[in-house]
Amino acid sequence: MWHQRDLTLKPHPRGFHLITREVVSALPELAGIRVGLLHVFIQHTSASLTVSENASPDVRRDFERYFNHAVPDGWADFEHTLEGDDDMAAHIKASVLGAGLSLPVRDGRLALGTWQGVYLCEHRNSGGARRLVLTLMGE
Amino acid sequence: MWHQRDLTLKPHPRGFHLITREVVSALPELAGIRVGLLHVFIQHTSASLTVSENASPDVRRDFERYFNHAVPDGWADFEHTLEGDDDMAAHIKASVLGAGLSLPVRDGRLALGTWQGVYLCEHRNSGGARRLVLTLMGE
Amino acid sequence: MWHQRDLTLKPHPRGFHLITREVVSALPELAGIRVGLLHVFIQHTSASLTVSENASPDVRRDFERYFNHAVPDGWADFEHTLEGDDDMAAHIKASVLGAGLSLPVRDGRLALGTWQGVYLCEHRNSGGARRLVLTLMGE
C-alpha cells in the first residue's frame, strides 16, 4: 500500500523546529498501516530534516549555535556568495543533516523512541515556506 | 513482503562498533528476499548508525577521535548541560551520522560492498542497551 | 513492484559531481512507477552520496573546499594512515554525508525540488570506478 502527499510547511525562522505533529497529521492513512515506513523528503537544498530530542527547546537552540560555528556564514573560502552569506553555509548544513528521513511505522503509528521527534532544520535567514513530500508504504 | 523486528543491543562502551552480524542474525527472513531493502533505525537521540570500513579497528578508533574533536564534550556554547558534558555533544553527533540506514537486499543477503559494515555509534559514556527497529521489505 | 540494478560510475576526480542523469537513465522502469521510492546506495566507504544544488558548479567546489577544511587529510590524530593521507579523511566524510539516499518517485519521475540534484562525493584522490546499487520500489 502506497500513499504520497505534499505538505507545505509555513515559513519558520532560521533554526531547528519540531514538526512531528504536522507530519503525522498530514497522513491519516498512517492509522491503517500495521508494518511499514514513512519517508519524509524536503524539496530544498538550504533546509534539511533530522531526528533528535523532542522535549527541551535548549537542545534545538544548541543545534543552531553548533552548526553556525561548524559552518560559518560567509566563510572566507566560499566562492558561491551571490545569494547572501547564509546561502552556501545552508547548502553544506543541509547535506550534513540530509534531505530525507525514513521512519519505521508500526500498528498505525511512527515507531519512534520516547524522546525522538522530527526536526525541520531551517538554515536560511528567510527560507520561506518549505515543501515536503511524504511517502508512506507498508501493509 | 514486510517483516519488522526489535533488536536490543547489549550496552557498548562509547565509540564505534561493528554490528552487521547481529543485525543480520536478528532477521532470518532476509534469506527469503530476492530484491528489497532493510531499514535499520535506532530509537535514541544520543547514539546513531553509519556504514563504514569493516576490517580495521583503527578506523573505528579514528572515528571516535575525530568526532570528539569536531563536537567537543561540554562545548562552551552549549546551553543543554544538565545531563552531563557528553549529552548535548551526543545529540549533535547522532544527527550528523543519522538515526536510520536503508540497505539494499539481493538474493537473500545485504548487498553491501566488500569493505562495508554497519556501525553502532555510541556517543554517551554510559549509553546502556540500545533499541533498534529492523524493517525488511521486498519480494 | 521492485527493480534492482547495478550502476558502475566511471572514475571521477576528487570532488563533488552531479550524477542525477546517469542514475535516472540506468532505470527505464522508473517511467512505470506512479508512486514509489528510489534508493541509491554506494558500495564504498570512501565516497558518498548527497542531494544539493544542481545549477552552480561553484557550489560543488565549495563543498570540496569546506569538507577538506572540516576533515583535513592526514589529520595528526589519525591512526589509520597506511593507505594514504586522504584515506581516513575519506571514511569520515563518507559517513557524514552518507552511503545511501532515498528519493520520492511520482508519475514516473523523481520528485526532486527544482534545484536539487544527486551528487557523487568522491573523497579519494584516485577513487576509481564506483559501484552503485539502485533499488526502485512502488506501484
Automatic annotation (TrEMBL), chains A, B, C:
InterPro entries found in the cross-reference section: UPF0047_YjbQ-like, YjbQ-like_sf
Signal peptide start and end residues: none
Superkingdom classification of source: Bacteria
Pfam families on file: YjbQ (PF01894)
Coiled coil segments of this chain: none
Similarity remark: Belongs to the UPF0047 family.
UniProt protein name: YjbQ family protein
